């Protein structure tokens, strides 16, 4: 169903890209979390929360279609609503975390040893390369960020900012201001 706006612009009825529900089907609220357009433009807040609980770490940070990073807001819950977080880590995930911690510890202690003159530089170059390739990758940072967000969601309510509202706020800012610094501060509240 398309509605006529200002002569030639068309606005279609909102459809959730996950459950395909419409505005007329139920009273769930919609959000537009990324730059996607067309049939994947809108999503219910509740459907997006369910998606985040099941999606992998990278998909919880950014939209896989348009590569837009989601802007999440944390609001403190009342202490009676606090829960024990569900990390959903299997045995392989525990093994990965253990190996990451071990490589990080070996890299840091080896670097300290190299600075003290007790470790060789060639060995430390190999350890630093391993650490960069396996631990300090973008996917691992997303994974650990996701674990941190799950921990935070046990005491905070997580909400997703609407992409269009972020664009409007950014358009009103002076051009010499950095959006990333401002969006992380509480100045806009």
How many domains comprise the coordinates?
2
How are the strands of the largest sheet arranged? 1-2
Question: From the coordinates shown, what is the CATH architecture of the largest domain?
Answer: 2-Layer Sandwich
Radius of gyration, whole Å: 22 Å
Helix content: 40-55%
Q: Multimeric state of these chains?
A: single chain
Mean pLDDT: 78
Helices, by number, come to 7
End-to-end Cα distance: 36 Å
CATH C-level class of the largest domain is Alpha Beta
The gross shape turns out to be elongated
Provide the low-confidence segments as ranges.
1-9
CATH topology of the largest domain: Herpes Virus-1
For the biggest sheet, the summary is: 2 strands, antiparallel
β-strand percent reads 5-15%
**Element order: H for helix, E for strand:** EEEEHHEHHHEHH
Please tally the β strands and state the result: 6
Estimated structural class: alpha+beta
Kindly describe this structure.
With 189 residues, this protein is α+β, with helices and mostly antiparallel strands. It folds into two domains: 90 residues, Herpes Virus-1 (2-Layer Sandwich), CATH 3.30.40; 72 residues. The protein is 46% helix and 12% strand. A two-stranded antiparallel ribbon has the order 1-2. A two-stranded antiparallel ribbon has the order 3-4. Strands 5-6 form a two-stranded antiparallel ribbon. Strand 1 and strand 2 form a beta hairpin. The N terminus is likely disordered.
Overview in brief:
The chain is of the alpha+beta class and 189 residues long. The chain is 46% helix and 12% strand. α3 runs antiparallel to α4.
